[in-house]
## 1
Amino acid sequence: MILKQKPFKFEWLLFFAVFFKKKLLRKYTAQLPTTFAEESQEQVVKSTQSDCKNELYSATLFKTMLLTISTTYFPADDLSYLLHKHPDKVQSVDISAGKAHIFYPEVSPQKCTVALLLDIDPVGLVRTAGPKGNDFALEQYVNDRPYVCSSLMSAAIAKAYSSALNGRCKDKPELVGVSMPFVIKLAVLPVKGGEAILRTLFEPLGYTFTAKQHPLDPAFEEWGDSRYFTLELSNTLTLQQLLSHLYVLIPVCDNDKHYWVAEDEVEKLLAKGKDWLETHPGRELIVNRYLKNQRSLTNRALSVLIANDEEEEAVEPIIDSAFQPAESKLKIHELRLIAARNELLNAGAKRVVDLGCGEGKLIKLLMSEKQFEFILGMDVSYRSLEIAKERLKLERLPAKQLTRVQLIQGSLTYRDKRLLNFEAATLVEVIEHLDKPRLAALERSVFEYAKPILVVVTTPNAEYNVRFADYQEGKMRHSDHRFEWTRSQFESWGNQIAAQYGYEVTFKPIGEVDPEVGALSQMAVFTLLQNK
């Protein structure tokens, strides 16, 4: 019967090798379990602390699940207060089918590193309740779960670092909201989708990373690379934000969980992602994978996130009555859409692509104009495209009208053949949602590769923010904005793009112009020089 199952994967040979390496590791650290159970923490510190740390820290060589968090914030040893873990003690907590050990390889005011090491019993893991896998007959006995960072690591983070994850610090509560520079190392992380998935998940949150992909077996190069990475992340943020990102994204990378996913997982996801998930460009991917591709749970979570996002977008900035513009009867977003449409009409464009089309508001406006023969809407959010489809009533359109409009999912930061051969492209309130690396990637994909004859870009005018009744210095109009440019900054960017990619650019205000700070929004219109 076993021969009739799916072919045995070469990857499992790696797991057998890891199993014997782990046994070898335990041989040299055999005293640790009894030490943790029978000796006081003080005795551990005096007798075996350095040995334990050396042996535990060397576990990365044996593909053991290890997470280290380092900071150079001064004084760096404040990290121990945030984590509520004494730096002079090796501590342990019980998790399903094993233990998690917490220790500090390095502690000083200049640098502090804390390590979380998981020691999972493979047999105990099989005996616990949970999904057993169905790739082949013996998957529940032969798998990588005891040896890689997976949902077990997320469970350990929630158990070992509970106070920090929930934003509590008894001794120094003022540290909870302090952003610190962190370097995080994960060994070894399974990633379904490779480095592209890591980039999609972590870069929008401000992380820089290096990822080392491990070969399936160094002795057999022809087998190729495995799906396992040693990952190093860097970012400046609060510890609570960092732990919430790791808690959610580690199992998302793996696209699997060691326990049954039920309705309470939706609440966990929304609670841990409340400050960042709804504005993450990859939220559909994150929600779908975190909830193990269960459609009913995914739809429930996304409906909450979309509702929150729509509620935030619906709140227009309150302008001080002394500076209320005449166009206030029209919302600023409507003014942007009308301005973009007028530029397209004046240019005589017939084939148009709306990049970052969202819920299709501009597309709906363009469909009423017979000049536009084909309109393509592209967005990274599948849920937004579903809303656009409903808003545009595509299913009810006559066949001839339906051929004029198409919605596609895609990232603006990657070269895409579907964007070729368009006369005009629009980026309405898109660029300010991208950090610098992704903005640079968008510039190339639009201006170098797609290269439409006309490109219309709109973005907020940061100078106008002082006219808002609730103005605060440094506060942006939307929580997901990575930047907001002044008129001179926008013009500097536009002129650089035009010179680099062979365009001519003109800049125009959107809305009534305030003599001191300009208009509420601003627009750049790029025209390809060879078509002048």
Note: The first strand starts at residue 66 and ends at 71.
## 2
Amino acid sequence: MLRATPHHGFLIRALAATFAIAVLAGLGLAHLLLRADWRTTVIAFIFVGAGVVGLHILRDWRFGIVSFFAWIVLEDAIRKYLGNRIVLYGAKDVLIGLTYVSFLFAQAVRRRSWEFRNPIRAPLIALIALAVAECFNPQIEHPLMPVIGMRMYFLYVPLFYLGYAYADSEERMRRFLLFALALGAVVSGLGVIQAMIGLDFLNPKGFVPGLRLELIRVAPESRMAVPRPTSVFVDAGRFAHYLFILFFLGLGAISYWHALRGEQEGRRRGDEETGRGRREMRALLGLMHRTPSALRRQECLVWIAFGMIGAGLIVSAQRAALVLAGAALLILVGIACRQRFASWIARCRESAFPLGKIVVGMVLALSGLALFHTEHLIALYRFCAETLSPLARESEVTWRPKVYWTDILVALRESRAFGHGTGTASLGLTYLYGLDDFYSGGTWSPYRVEGGYASVIWEWGIVGVGLWMWWTLALIWVAGRTARRLASSRFFGLAVALALFLAFLHVPYFFLGLSVYQNYVNNAYHWFLSGMLFRLPKLAGGRSEALTT
């Protein structure tokens, strides 16, 4: 006999409310169809679909996580064909809001004490308190600026907790890794095709307010053109940021599957020698429903996805992402060589990082690009060499860092201790002043500074940048310590990759612009993967019972 719970009662009331909303939405859609406003009709259908998906999210918050990460990738493809309407921004906020509500209800039904203790709670709470106080700064010019700023900075912070709760077992963690990398491989492949056949592919014709869909960079000396693809996104930079995240996730996934298969094969050899059964081996690895061939297929899929993501990152032509990805590979090579040396001393052949597969994946990506479009690869090389080499006449290395440091000095001089207020340098300000002149040739901009740290100083002053550095350095330190704790487990490579991602995102990459953090794709993945990283020690210890339903 089924017993009603408060959660079930809430679902019944939510279903009734959704039915009423659906009836009203149907009447509204009929009215819109009579007016022949097809764009508004499509947007209305999107929100009705979000409501239907929301019902399932209220029953299963993990479904909300997957739906949200799928939507933030696909949203831009709809936006650029519907005229960049600001109302579409609300769809992802509705999805993540319903996910938060569902998670809280699930926690209330379970009535369990929360196990996760936020390792950066003190600096994070201090920063949020300052941001709230800065919402009342008298220098704020528009009443919506603080709303925009608080959303850009802190809307996805709860994903830190949801990421920890989501990865309550290795099976769920593997599913998310496969989902994220498979989706990234498709998006990356579309970007590669767009770079090869032309930027008209996957982009609407004509001018779209607020969007710059066809961006072509030119090498200063050779004058070779390098098109920057957007794939499904509305901005080439967001496409590069997305692949930058997945590049590190792919590195960690390859290392994890390599170590997992190595442990399984080693256990099988030991079982054959000692006569133990296969059931004990599978229980040890948590693979009761996975066969060795399934693991090989998953590892092959991860390897292919990593190669596709690497190819997309190369054709994205964002120099900062390429340089940081190369630096990460060098660091991993150093860690792997150190492990190889230690393994040789210990007479052990296994290493956490399969350097051969990683190198082969990158070589295949470069070879594929060279085979299908050699001119594009040559142009990309010339562009990077002529703008990054200190020996080049038009090298940006000689003057661009000075611009960022100058912005910091300007922000310090004009902001003093407490800055101009929350949101005064955040993304989205152009939507407050209209999009007609944006990217249309005008020189006006609502932003006075460019760099990430300069923007934080502009908003919150010296006090704010101090708190910002406190929480970011604390996060990097705890992430590195977590990776060291996993040095002898199969999660070590994944933990190192995620810790490197956090370190590069918050220090060198963030120095170049606030959008590196505030971009919703970066921000959401940043908090969710951070929570997942801090769950790995519990998975390694064998305690993987679910925190929530």
Note: The chain has a mean pLDDT of 81.
